[in-house]
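dude i think i finally got it to work??
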Amino acid sequence: MRPRALLPDTVSGRATAVVVVIAFCVGLAAASLVPSHAAARASSQPSPLRPAAPGAGPTRVTNGIPSGFAHTRDGAVAAAASYVCTGQALLDLDPLSVDDAVRSMAASASADRQVEDANSQLQRARDALAAGQGSIVFRQAVVAYRVEAFDGDRARVAVWNVGVLTRDGVAPPQAGWAISTFDLVWERDDWRIWSETVVPGPAPVLNDSTAPATPSQFVESLDGFVDFGGHA
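look at this
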């Protein structure tokens, strides 16, 4: 029997209980359900696609969790892009370390809800992938971003991102596309997540230039590769 695909056709956010593994397809920054009141003054121009600005951060990565972002517009962009790509790091942590990791990214007022959401999503994903063999592999990338608001201590940044998930025997390599919008606040000398909303991103189809990879081909072909913004 062929491994079943784990990606749904649509997503309504990270807290959707019926979607087992969608958290891995849109990032695992553990979005809060707290209504956002971190909106700031609207930016007059969308941000062009460009590399992260020098000095924007992060300056530290602890157990795969980034921190140390500049108190600037570019720092807020770097924080959103980094936080959306923490899925593999959170997946690899034990439950106690997940709590610490999520709280390190979260604003104090919404941290409890973000921890609860993250643990629930991680458990559903592990349960869904339990029948497979070998490592669970989840590679993420941000393709583009837009600064929707910024006033110095608050920011709203939308990132178009993709996550590719696979585990041998249960999940062939599959890509999930989303737009994750972060409401960030400057707190405890860093950008922290107040809340996140996720909608399905524009998803391209695979062209005919190559056949879809098997889990083993995916892992072997990318052996030694480090994600941009990641650490070996």
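Confidence is low (pLDDT under 50) at residues 1-50.
im so relieved honestly
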